[in-house]
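[#protein-structures] MJ: dropping Inner-membrane translocator here for a structure pass
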Amino acid sequence: MLPGYPYSILNFFQYTFFYILFSIPLTLSYRNTKVINFAHANFISYGIYTAVFLNGLLGNTSLALACLAAFAVGGSIALVNHLLVFRPLEKRGASMSLIMIASMGLWIMYNYALYMLADIAHYYTLKNFISYGRIVYADVPEVELLGLRLQQSFVAGGLAALVLVASLYLFLEKTTLGKAMRAVADNPVLAEISGIPRNTIVNLTWLIAGGAAAVGGAIWTSFSGTVTPTSADAMILQVFTVSFIGGLVSLLRTGLGAVAIAFIENVGIAALNTYFGVPISFRPFLTFVTLLTILIAFPPLGAAGGLPFRFRSRKVRAE
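AK: finished. structure tokens for Inner-membrane translocator:
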């Protein structure tokens, strides 16, 4: 019997769903834009607070409506970041390191903006939006399975992760637009020469990446006991670790990374706590060790090597 059973197993599946929802959009955006985007945390946090404001200000208890609104907000933020910050910097010849630093600036700016919005909402309603409790939705059931009660977040998270994976697979493999997106990811110069509108593909990529991550944020409000404007910041290490396992390019390996990190953080820490007395609070330590191990063993971008690494390897072999 596994330590902490059955809750360690339930949490393993629950966090797998969330890491898929948060990390696959990050991998998708990097493989098409090459931007290591720290503002990805903002997509999640603004998805969270779209649901919070809808609930606290308008009394919304529909998770479906919250997810749709979150997709629009997160996708719009991602697109605006690209059009007003990343693309102008690229046109001026800025390096990817400089663009990464710009994304850090956006990350901090959006955090303060969200705190201001929460303060303004508090001023007019006297509700505490800085620390908001878990939302109970009316359109998502709790399910009884094998004597276990699966909460709303489990049902919604599992369904959303399944929809994201299936829709991305069908889009990338079966549609002309999706194949164009893959072509831009593999070789943007050759794709442009072939007549593929790279700017349109990149815009669409940011819209999907920001929107999908924000949907995960909206579902998070049905799981977490309390959310704050920086709730997503506490998860960004795990999100990047999962994407690094996929080399920031492989969606399949990113999904496997979500399973691996969720297993280490739930079943792994439960086993260490049971047999060796390791505190549960050491969960981030395990994630950090995993991240360092991956980066050292598979430089420069994780287990899939990353596009630059793959191209460089081919060049070295050709020479």
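MJ: nice. Residues 16-230 form one domain.
AK: one more thing. Confidence is low (pLDDT under 50) at residues 306-311.
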